[in-house]
Structure prediction request, 356 residues.
Amino acid sequence: MSQARYWQAASAPGDVVCTLCPHRCALRPGATGRCGARANVDGRLELLTWGRNAVVCIDPIEKKPLYHFLPGTPTLSFGGFGCNLSCSCCQNWELSRHRGGIDRPVDTPEAIAAAAVRKGCRSVAMTYNEPAIALEYASAVADACRAVGVRPVGVSAGYVSEAARPEFFRSFDAVNIDLKAFSESFYKRHCHAHLAPVLETLKYAATETRTWVEVTTLLIPGLNDGDAEVAALARWIAEEMSPTVPLHLSAFHPDHKLMDVPPTPPATLRRARAVARAEGLAFVYTGNIDDPEGETTLCPGCGAPTLRRDRYEILGHGLDPHGRCVRCDTQLPGVFDGPPGNWGRRRQAVIMPAPH
Prediction:
């Protein structure tokens, strides 16, 4: 447990209001916020999950998914418990919906950074659950990692308050943000949240920060996969963020509270990709299906394939070490530092040392 930031005293003695996210949970002493990670302890807001990670492993960076950030390299991935959304489609719901006692050792920021160096990872990724709800920990991990030359990245739903956005994006060199759908009705019914704050976060990220941003939308049959909604979503990204922001359209599989919804057909993803590209997005990818064409990065200058992938694995590339097309010298947008790696699609468990 650690002292939290982003809160204020309420009118009633001992009560507090958490200001980290748009929910603005009002908490009496002993109460825990909707995220399950922040609680009123004796009139102060405390972070209950500081350093208590449920999973630590090595993934390909493409699995986050981040396709334009140190491609082909391994990232030390870790995540804890809780989330400030309540998505019926959540595919990590065992972690995100966990409430109650957390009997886990503490992984200090320095231990995370040291593990990344020891395992040869160029980056660490706060993923599996929402990193924003543990922003104090994320910020400390970022400082520890940057001190040893490791880049911090995050995977988030973007449900962050205006006050917390600057620190959130300072904590990450790259972020993939889930845009669950492009309708308020979906966010209210299936996430118990609102669309507008997520759009505000995305626009802020693209226009006010130096963080590399990619966007993911999980297409769910009958709920958010219509051509008109996909077109509107892609058009908003192109106009309000940038036409070069990568958009990942991923396949849904039945999980959590949507066990009666069928998996997303590959044809739906391929059609949605075509729709999004027609709205002006330069980089639209399909995910969670076998689709080499939908995973390939094309040069925006000459159209040549610059990164060919198969299920997170780099099969070939046409880039120089700085991310320029070797055919026409066009700079690919993103973060490139040396040639693409060859980590492949492996997932490797990491055993963290016991705290002293």
Q: What stands out?
A: The chain has a mean pLDDT of 95. The first strand starts at residue 2 and ends at 3.
